[in-house]
Amino acid sequence: MNSRSRAHSFKSDRNIITEVKSVNQSLIFELGSAEKSGVDVQDCDFSANLIGDSFRKEKIGLPGLSEPEVIRHFVNLSKKNYSIDEGIYPLGSCTMKHNPRLNEKLARLEGFANLHPLQPINTVQGILELMFELSKNLLEITGMDAVALSPAAGAQGELCGILAIKQAFEKKGDNRSKILVPDSAHGTNPSTAALCGYDIESIPSNSEGRINFEILKEKLNSQVAALMLTNPNTCGLFENDILKIAEEVHNVGAYLYCDGANFNAIVGKVKPSSLGIDAMHLNLHKTFSTPHGGGGPGSGPVVVSSRLSSYLPIPMVKMVNNKFEIIEKESIDSFGRLKAFHGQVGTFIRAYAYILSHGADGLKQVAEDAVLNANYIQSKLKKYLTVRYSGYCMHEVLFDDKFLKGTEVSTLDFAKAMIDKGIHPMTIYFPLIVSGAMLTEPTETESKKDLDDFCEKLIDLAEEAKSGNKNLFDSSPTKAVLGRLNETAAAKDLVLTYSE
Ligand SMILES: *Cc1c(COP(=O)(O)O)cnc(C)c1O
């Protein structure tokens, strides 16, 4: 079934379509017509015989549009969106920091932007050198022994790390069945373990928001392949017991996988190798900066210790006799291939530019400023909102909904009201273990003035809620392009095609 005929099977009165129409922007397919074109193409008289059976028999169905129509369509759409270039974007765990324009400039250099992955190897020495140097830098920063650059994002990095661990056990003839995951983990952790065929055992968090060490010890045995731990964890807290945890995990012959999405908080300060970690993904788009709103592009290289280095996937870039080569053939131990070609090369260029322009001292300052900014917010807001766990936080601060008790205002209402204040909401209802969680990550790139402004707006809202102004919350957002959407329909009832 092609996309057009599928479109007909959707009812046209779905929420989303109606909403889009209500903000007065037609779909690009509705704007287009066959008589218009943005390019001037000569009539050609080649015959179908020339290309034989591969000659297209049906119209491709692209809309005909003039160049200004295309530009206006996309510029107008972009103006309906909120982006980090407009204001603070404090989505906890997502690390929505400023993306230096230098990275963009370098990624757009013609020599990089116009490369094709199937070019002869002697014509791509430059990008291979960049990937080789980026790998060296990532290994230096993490202290680990080997890296696979190809995973397409953090979630695929997890898959890469767990497949390497699985391969390591299979090569030893040791068939283990379980992976342990703390209850505060990001959903990608248990789904990765399940995808790799493991049973998942959840480890509860203790009253301080960290993994319960005693219960972990009880659950560790010779059936456990790995513990997947996030550090700093999704409560914005450093797992202080990590050395003891690594020791216990290793004592039963298992591996310690670290979800490195929060590496922003410790980059340049702590080498994961010194924490007993065997494998960890780095979300280059988070810690090392690439615009990643709207779902991409990401990149999730995986660094591993010497215990796992021979199991990593191909391809790899190696230097042989001063030339760069692509290792494509699987070694006997590698678990295979994850991704076409090399992964997200544009993100490698941005990450490499970011690392070089910061230098070792600059990266260390990234972590220090990220933690300082989060703690600044925590200390300014702790009298008005409720901080879930006491003590200093790392790069993100976790509020719960206790301060809204008795107000009939929910975390969701509070977040929607933030939109009317002109700021993007924080991550809400995650981690799942905290009631009405509001996970707030200012990142290191916000100024003191912007943090003060952010805090004032949140204090205002907290006071409105407590003073019983429920109406303000019920009706928000009123200033956004769209009002309050049906969140369930927006997630479950996607309309991705247009209907004629
Ligand atoms: C973002 C994130 C992931 C997933 O990473 P993607 O790059 O989005 O695939 C996993 N764990 C945590 C804690 C995250 O914040």
Describe the protein's architecture and organization.
The protein has 500 residues and is α/β, with parallel strands linked by helices. It folds into three domains: 25-79, no CATH class; 104-357, Type I PLP-dependent aspartate aminotransferase-like (Major domain) (Aspartate Aminotransferase, domain 2, 3-Layer(aba) Sandwich); 362-492, Aspartate Aminotransferase, domain 1, CATH 3.90.1150. 38% of the residues lie in helices and 10% in strands. It contains 18 helices and 13 strands. A seven-stranded mixed β-sheet has the order 1-7-6-5-4-2-3, with helices on both faces. The chain has a four-stranded antiparallel β-sheet with strand order 10-11-13-12. A two-stranded antiparallel sheet has the order 8-9. The protein is globular. The two termini are 16 Å apart. The relative contact order is 0.14. Residues 1-22 have low confidence and may be disordered. Pyridoxal-5'-phosphate binds at residues 93, 153-155, 186, 188, 230, 234, 259, 261, 283, 298, 300. The site of pyridoxal-5'-phosphate has 13 residues, from helix 9.
